[in-house]
Amino acid sequence: MTGKERAGLRAMANTVQPIFQIGKGGISDTMIEQIGLALDARELIKITVLETAEISAPEASDQLCQALGAQPVQCIGRKITIYRRNEKEPKIEL
User: Fold this and answer.
1) CB of 3 closer than 8 Å to CB of 71
2) How far is CA 46 from the centre of its chain?
3) How far, in Å, are 35, 69, 78, 85 from residue 50 at the CA level?
4) What does the chain look like in DSSP terms, one character per residue?
5) CATH number of this structure's domain 3-83, picked from the four choices 3.40.1390.10, 3.30.110.60, 3.30.1130.10, 3.40.50.1110
6) How many CB atoms lie within 10 A of CB 48?
7) Which backbone phi and psi does 54 adopt, to 5 degrees?
8) Which pLDDT score is estimated for 93?
9) What is the mean pLDDT of the chain?
10) So what's the pLDDT on residue 3?
11) Domains in the chain: boundaries
C-alpha cells in the first residue's frame, strides 16, 4: 500500500468507531473469524486494545494482519485500524 493510499484510509478512520475490543483473553480464533467477517463487509475497521490485555496495540495489529491477510493503517494509543480489500465487492476506492 502506498503512503497516499494509507493517508486516505487514515482520514476515513477518523470517523470510524471501534467495533471490537481485545481484552484479557487476548486474540482468539473466534475473534479472528469475526474480525474477518467484519473486514469482508466494511474493509476498514478500528479495534480497541483494553488496558487489561496482555498484548500491546502494535502486537495485536501485527498478529491480526498476519492472521487475516490485512494491512495495518494506523496504531494510535490503544486503538488500531486495519484494512483488507474485498476483491469481490470493493467498498472503498483507493
Assistant:
1) no
2) 5
3) 16, 23, 7, 26
4) --HHHHHHHHHHHTTPPP-EEE-TT---HHHHHHHHHHHHHHSEEEEEE-TT-SS-HHHHHHHHHHHHT-EEEEEETTEEEEE---SSS--S--
5) 3.30.110.60
6) 19
7) -90, 10
8) 67
9) 92
10) 85
11) 3-83
What is the reported pTM? 0.88
Q: Which three cell numbers stand for residue 18?
A: 471501534
C-alpha cell recorded at residue 61: 495489529
> Measured over all CA atoms, what is the biggest interatomic distance in the chain, rounded to whole angstroms?
37
Instruction: Locate 63 and state its grid cell.
Output: 498478529
Q: How far apart are CA 10 and CA 34, in angstroms?
A: 22
In contact, 32 and 64? CB cutoff 8 Å: yes
Query: What amino acid is encoded at 38 in this protein?
Result: A
- Give the cell for residue 44: 476498514
